Structure prediction request, 104 residues.
Amino acid sequence: MGRRSSLPFVVEMPRGVAHNFTAMERSSEETRDNSVHSERLPAGRRVYFFDVKRTSKGDCYLVISERRKTDEGPKRDRIMVFSEDIGRFMEALSKAAGKMETKT
Prediction:
């Protein structure tokens, strides 16, 4: 199992990764333990984050987050892609992106 948090609403995710749905900020010690790489992409009222992290078992996974400003306040959505799925995920993403029309 993954690390336990003292904060409420912690859900155990697959392969031992814990996610806290009430507090997005993590202690700097915890971030240092499992963060491998981070990218930030500002896009108007949205910001995308691409974070490669490591589970307690040492497996890498990708977290793609979107933070956007809304009339009700900031909103954040996340998806996690584990290393065994990244190849197929990238193929599907590339295929979908290829179908999008680019307006110039």
The domain at 35-98 is CATH 3.10.450.700 (Nuclear Transport Factor 2; Chain: A,). The mean pLDDT is 77. The first strand starts at residue 10 and ends at 12.
